[in-house]
Description:
Layout: E1 2-3, E2 11-14, E3 20-22, E4 28-29, E5 35-39, E6 49-52, E7 62-66, E8 78-81, E9 91-94, E10 106-109, E11 119-122, E12 134-137, E13 147-150, E14 162-165, E15 175-178, E16 189-192, E17 202-205, E18 210-212, E19 221-223, E20 225-228, E21 231-233, E22 238-241, E23 248-250, E24 253-255, E25 259-262, E26 267-270, E27 280-282, E28 286-289, E29 302-304, E30 307-311, E31 314-321, E32 329-331, E33 344-350, E34 354-356
Amino acid sequence: MVFNVSSTAYQITSPPALPFIIQGTGISNNSGVIQNFVATTDNTGSSGSFQFGIDATAGDSTTFITAAATVSGGLPAIVQFVDEANAGSATIINNGAILSGATGGETDFWNTTKGDRANITNKAGVVSGATGGTTFFTFSASAEEAIITSEGAATNGAAGGKTAFQSRSRATHATLIANGGINGGTGGVIEFTDSSDGGTAQVKVFGDGNLDISAHNPVPVVIGSLEGDGEVLLGPQELSIGANNLSTTFSGVIQDSGSVVKTGTGTLTLSRASIYTGGTTVNAGTLKVGNRRGSATGNGAVAVRAGKLSGDGIIAGATSIGTGSGAGAFLAPAAGGSKATTLTIQALIFKADGLQL
Length: 357
């Protein structure tokens, strides 16, 4: 599908039960204006869809809108990528439902498809009992450099949007955002299940927006960085933070029985108390704590195997610096600053390769 230089702006609609299938090279927009694609639903529960197959692309300067189901139990409108298709730099908006029990609009990445540089928004449900829009990555799909935002709901009992990585899918280099809800509406969700992987993705959670890895297989979930003031739900899993080497501050709460591992060359600052119990390991970079009450690392043990532990916060768990035979680990409360700093640790052990700076 080609929009020539002289083309005006169009709106192309996929009505219920009539999928719009795009294969080959996909969409080429040379018009210089945004071309709009809308998948709709009806009160019989049917829905429209745009389906990209083979190696088709959603192109540049294109906007896709998926409608929510308009009846309880009905099908939402969908943008679907299969085979080796990609989203290009399209804007995709998955609308939230406006009826209790109805499902929000949906975008699916299957097989080895890619999010490329798309900007995707999962809108929240509008009324109590309504779900938000959702973006799914499954099989071996990857988000690449997409920016995906799951909005929080603004109505009591309404659900926020959701971004879900399933099977062996990968977030790759994406920016994943979950915003908080207001007025009793729930926040957006970023979820990793099965054997999915966060790659070097930037994860940003705010308010009651959350990162949820609780249903992941019992292997570490790796992400690039974590920031914001939202929630992290570990379940019994291990979350590894730092693969993109960025320095970030997280002022939210990490919870459940799982553990946290700091990797990469950047600094992760935990500025608020958390309640996870599985312990914390520093393998590289700097873990900085700045909480004023409670424990920044929950009540589990803290092991600094390499890198630095710094800050002026409080750590409740038994803390060890070094491994006894490693390359060196450091307790450096004032690292990166010019003033003397007091770091409060309830129990501290230095091993042979552990040093205080």
